[in-house]
Amino acid sequence: MTAPGREDVDGVVLLDKPTGLTSNAALQRVRRLYRAASGGHAGTLDPLASGLLPVALGQAAKFSQGLLEADKEYLASVRLGVRTTTGDAEGEVIARLPVPPLGEDRLEAALAGFRGEIDQVPPMHSALKRDGRPLYEYARRGETVERAPRRIAIYRLDLIAVAEDRVELRVRCSKGTYVRTLAEDIGSALGCGAHLAGLRRTAVGGFRVEDAVGLAALEEGGPDLLWTALRPVDILVEPLPRIDLDADASERLRHGQSVAAPGALPAPAGLLRAYGPEGLFLGVVQADDGRVRPHRLMRTA
pTM for the complete prediction? Predict the structure, then answer.
């Protein structure tokens, strides 16, 4: 992890993105703060949504694929009785329906149908592509195209609160899940329609929003906060077993060579996070037959 203020800064910022800002705009503001030459974010949040947006600066970006694939957790506010063009509060109202009396039993029965593995049709207002063009381009012209349903998993769908036409939910789901589509489908199951009124992402994989820093705080906190908010690159691969190599093996690994494992491997085959002398993170290696070879390594000067 290099110090903030250098163009080669490498590290991870767990950002609590505010509403009203695209994920890319939030990323660019973080990059400017750190004067980072490159960076990316792990999982887009719509402007309507707030919450955890992991930002990978510099070389951290090449180790962030696991977060893109990771489960996500949200707090979702669903407004019943109102359907919109986009399935969320940013769209135009297209239907208003009476909301029937909703006891917890009826709501739980409806929610039960969405737990586990389900098929979900992606919304027209999404960045998924059809014939090389994102779906939202068709939607903006008033066109609807056929979309194949995709298999997703809803691991957790908890009823948090109910107040008149509002339902608050906690959702833990697989990658590729559209929570606004889930909100619409729940409204259909209840017979009154619905849209997503608010969304906050509370977790990405093992990272939680409680450990994140707000964008305003980051911009106003000065160098000390920038430093403490910048996490080391290897937090992105912490779930992988660890292997430690001596100086000679580390050097040969960096030159693209495979090396003998120092003793028994933590796993007979698979990916490991590798460290050199003094705990220096080298990157991710592939283990097989008592040897390890480069898979994705940190760049050295």
Answer: 0.90
